């Protein structure tokens, strides 16, 4: 069976060159998990790997949550794979309709595993965690497809949340094409 790192390289989710990240930081590589999450075979592989992590680590949760935008297709696939109800966390509350920041039917006191496409410093996922906690939900784990290994693990640990990467950037950068 193909490894996730191999599948990510094959679908060109990792690109090399000169890039400016959302943070404004310069990088010699860019991780575009949207290339993977729009590929049904790779998205299915990601969902299976996350489901395997939940089973192997005996992680029991009530919901799978995805951070908009990149985490939503991954969380949707995991929801379909595991049967867990889906929550989507917007970066900001809407100004219209229900004005909610969480899409889904969360129940106070329940637990959520958040999934994210890529983590760097962990800033966006920490905001999503706070949004969920503000609604009375518990988050102990974040599963990320690729960790860029630039501080997210430590930042989440400071918030009593464990980051579980499926792939670390050091694995993708090893023997690059």
Automatic annotation (TrEMBL):
Q: Which Pfam families match?
A: Pribosyltran
The record's keywords, sorted A to Z, are:
Glycosyltransferase, Magnesium, Pyrimidine biosynthesis, Transferase
Q: EC top class, in one word?
A: transferase
Associated pathway: Pyrimidine metabolism; UMP biosynthesis via de novo pathway; UMP from orotate: step 1/2
Signal sequence annotation: none
According to its UniProt record, the EC number is: 2.4.2.10
Any one GO MF term held by the record is: magnesium ion binding
Domain of life where this protein originates: Archaea
UniProt record, GO biological process: 'de novo' UMP biosynthetic process; pyrimidine nucleobase biosynthetic process
> For binding orotate, which residues are annotated in this chain's numbering?
120, 148
**Domain Phosphoribosyltransferase spans what residues?**
39-151
Provide the reaction this enzyme catalyses: orotidine 5'-phosphate + diphosphate = orotate + 5-phospho-alpha-D-ribose 1-diphosphate
Q: How does it assemble?
A: Homodimer.
What this protein is reported to do is described as: Catalyzes the transfer of a ribosyl phosphate group from 5-phosphoribose 1-diphosphate to orotate, leading to the formation of orotidine monophosphate (OMP).
Question: What family, per the record?
Answer: Belongs to the purine/pyrimidine phosphoribosyltransferase family. PyrE subfamily.
* Name of protein: Orotate phosphoribosyltransferase
Organism this protein belongs to: Candidatus Methanoperedens nitratireducens
């Amino acid at each position: 069976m193909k490894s996730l790192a191999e599948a990510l390289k094959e679908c060109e989710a990792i690109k090399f060159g000169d890039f400016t990240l959302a943070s404004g930081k310069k990088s010699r590589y860019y991780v575009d998990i949207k290339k993977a999450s729009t590929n049904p075979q790779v998205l299915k592989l990601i969902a299976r790997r996350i489901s395997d992590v939940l089973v192997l680590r005996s992680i029991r949760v009530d919901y799978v949550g995805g951070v908009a935008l990149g985490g939503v297709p991954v969380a949707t696939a995991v929801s379909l794979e595991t049967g867990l109800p889906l929550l989507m966390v917007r970066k900001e509350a809407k100004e219209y309709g229900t004005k909610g920041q969480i899409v889904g039917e969360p129940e106070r006191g329940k637990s959520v595993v958040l999934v994210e496409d890529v983590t760097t410093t962990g800033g966006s996922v920490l905001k999503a965690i706070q949004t969920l906690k503000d609604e009375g939900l518990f988050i102990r784990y974040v599963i990320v497809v690729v960790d860029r290994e630039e501080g997210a693990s430590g930042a989440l640990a400071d918030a009593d949340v464990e980051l579980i990467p499926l792939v670390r950037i050091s694995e993708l950068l090893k023997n690059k094409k």
